[in-house]
Amino acid sequence: MNNKKKNEGQTDFSYYGLYLLDYLRTNKFEQADDTAFIRERADRAAETYERARLEGYPADGAQELAMDTLLRGLHDSRYAILREVVENEFADEVPEEKREAFVLKLLPLVGNVFSVYDLSDDNFALSSDYDLLYTELTGATVLYLDEYGV
Questions:
Q1: Cβ proximity of 69 and 19 under 8 Å
Q2: How far apart are CA 110 and CA 137, in angstroms?
Q3: DSSP output for the chain
Q4: What angle do CA 128, 129, 132 make, to 5 degrees?
Q5: Residue 57 backbone class (left: φ over 0; alpha: ψ -120 to 50; beta: rest)
């Protein structure tokens, strides 16, 4: 019953809606449970695709524009960035089978570190701010591991 309720209303999502839902869940975005947000984004992506095809874009080009519309501002999740830090910097300290649980446990504790950065900027990962955030998260993870371990 719980799975039925969890999936309720999702079977009528469009291709773009299902893609976005999976993307949001995989990267642990807060909007993963926001059906209205997903539908609105999916509708805009479908409209972008349709408009591009009518303007003469090839299917691949129209799809690229639609996906850009669908994922605009959603390229960098807090979870994905922290997971990257843990995987890259703490592979020896945090065993692979414990990383998911570790990242999920640490994530709420480093929320204040994220608060000063604009993750909705689609070019954030290419900016110097990303490097600063990465460094701050590395430091916070070191402190956590020293205090509490894995």
A1: no
A2: 7
A3: -HHHHHHTTTTT--HHHHHHHHHHHHTT-GGGG-HHHHHHHHHHHHHHHHHHHHTT--HHHHHHHHHHHHHTT-S--HHHHHHHHHHHH-TTTS-HHHHHHHHHHHGGGGHHHHTTS-TTSTTGGGSHHHHHHHHHHHHHHHHHHHHH--
A4: 95
A5: beta
Tens digit of each residue's pLDDT (9 = 90 or more) over 13-70: 889 999 999 999 998 898 999 999 999 999 999 999 999 999 999 999 999 999 999 9
Residue 61 structure tokens:
């080009």
| Residues 6+ positions from 18 with CB-CB distance below 8 Å | 10
| 114-129 tens-digit pLDDT | 989 988 888 898 999 9
- The pTM (predicted TM-score) of the whole model is 0.74
Structure tokens at 131: 């490097």
116, burial (CB in 10 Å: exposed 0-12, middle 13-18, buried 19+): exposed
CA angle, residues 78, 143, 105, in degrees to nearest 5:
45
What amino acid occupies position 110? V
